[in-house]
UniProtKB/TrEMBL annotation, chains A, B:
Family membership: Belongs to the acetylglutamate kinase family. ArgB subfamily.
Localization (cell): Cytoplasm
Reactions catalysed: N-acetyl-L-glutamate + ATP = N-acetyl-L-glutamyl 5-phosphate + ADP
EC number: 2.7.2.8
Residues that hold substrate according to the record: 40-41, 62, 159
UniProt pathway: Amino-acid biosynthesis; L-arginine biosynthesis; N(2)-acetyl-L-ornithine from L-glutamate: step 2/4
GO MF annotations in UniProt: acetylglutamate kinase activity; ATP binding
The keyword RNA-binding belongs to this UniProt entry's keyword annotation: no
Enzyme class: transferase
Gene assigned in the entry: argB
GO cellular component, one term: cytoplasm
UniProt source species: Roseivirga spongicola
Residues in Aspartate/glutamate/uridylate kinase domain copies: 3-242
Protein name: Acetylglutamate kinase
Family annotation (InterPro entries): AceGlu_kinase-like_sf, AcgluKinase_fam, ArgB, Asp/Glu/Uridylate_kinase
Length: 258, 258
């Protein structure tokens, strides 16, 4: 099986032009197929503020109403995505910007309204991924760069969490590739000691459970790590959580495996 | 040779949701490969106004400064492009949104500064088109939808006229396909009598010259028609200028041929 790396970056990289440029320089040095997944960073909020679009929250959860959907479609799907693609091209790395609507590569279901109406938010599973088109692009040396957007097949774009897009893509592509999923953070990995930045080098189900029981792992990390183990159980070869500046350091960060 | 239709729509279709929906319904009925090229319409100006980005003009020519480039990248490459793609998907037509940076499909040269500095504007030729990636997509039943954006290969997106993108694509793709280039207008074709909407059914070099000499053809149409004849001379099979509501009317509008 060929190798494929799926890398997710967040706002901390995107918001700082120098960090982004260094990250993309590192990313462009890869010789094996890769897919990059990004959100939009603070620029979406800044442009939203200028346009008079306020962040909508219900019970502490972010809501995507119609105007917020337009905002993220512009920023994630247009501004941020195309800037990243153009920069990668300049570094000799052939990238193609995609949302889930493009080539129907990621079909989502609009989240059903229960207690909260999240608005135009898309939930996805590996079955909704058009792996054959992605595989064809990768075979031609064209590497997808995903904005955190999907569609419902009924004419609407949908807002989908970038972490989720990365893990669902990883699971879907693991049918055809040996997939490594990499989450880039501001921290040097999953920490056992936040103050002294002590990184847990390897997380497996057993020590993960111990760290959870003893409260060593920050509660905010638990959904991300549960998600990582779910991806491994669904066929992904390995998950790595690293600092974005360590992309090409083979042993950096936390390796998560079964 | 397989047939390929390249269709350009302008703001008059994009700005009116009903017209756009009807146009995309007609477009989605096509069974042969097609590429759609669009600009951004008034929505770019409206969002620009809200963001405090004013249209910059020098000697009557529009200038693309850095903030205007961000604006058109958001709107043409994100909002308008992804809305069109999602709507086409809902109509059962597999589309993929592209700018010139994506897959390096259209490499441009930033327009040199002479009397006027046009800013981030890209000039293109058929040699800058990556026809093999486009052909591979079309072979897989995935039809490109182009926003009017290119890139310079040095990390910058560039603003490029949608009419020009359509004609350059048509010339480049005519090496592999029998290409029909269609410009959708608000008028039912090239008119010999504007008041009574009398359409010139066929324009060939000889009667085109006569119409120009007699002043029958509106001077604003001349650069477009010169451009159409250039495309024919460079290998495009036929050019048609039609009203956007007549897309599937075989005999509608003005047919331009050698």
């Amino acid at each position: 099986m060929n190798k494929l790396t799926i890398i997710k970056i967040g706002g901390n990289v995107i918001d700082d032009p120098k960090s982004l440029d260094q990250f993309l320089t590192d990313f462009a040095q890869r010789t094996e197929p890769a897919i990059l997944v990004h959100g939009g960073g603070k620029i979406a909020t800044q442009i939203g503020n200028k346009l008079g679009i306020e962040a909508k929250m219900v019970d502490g959860r972010r809501i995507t109403d119609a105007e917020t959907l337009d905002l993220v479609t512009m920023v994630y799907g247009g501004l941020t995505n195309k800037k990243i693609v153009a920069q990668l091209q300049s570094k000799g790395f052939n990238a193609i910007g995609l949302t889930g609507a493009d080539g129907n590569v990621m079909l989502a279901k609009k989240r059903p309204v229960k207690k909260i109406d999240y608005g135009f938010v898309g939930d996805i599973t590996a079955d909704g991924v058009n792996t054959s088109l992605l595989q064809s692009m990768l075979n031609q040396g064209v590497n997808p760069v995903f904005g955190a957007l999907t569609h419902d097949g009924e004419g609407h774009m949908l807002n989908t969490n970038a972490d989720t897009i990365a893990s669902v893509l990883a699971v879907a592509m693991s049918r055809e590739f040996e997939v490594e999923l990499v989450y880039c953070f501001e921290q040097p990995g999953v920490l056992s000691d936040f103050e002294n930045k002590v990184v847990i080098p390897v997380l497996e189900p057993k020590n993960y459970q111990e760290y959870k029981d003893s409260g060593v792992i920050n509660s905010g990390m638990i959904p991300k790590l549960d998600n990582a183990f779910d991806a491994l159980n669904a066929g992904v070869k390995s998950v790595r959580i690293i600092q974005f500046s360590d992309l090409n350091q083979a042993e950096a960060g936390t390796l998560i495996r079964l």
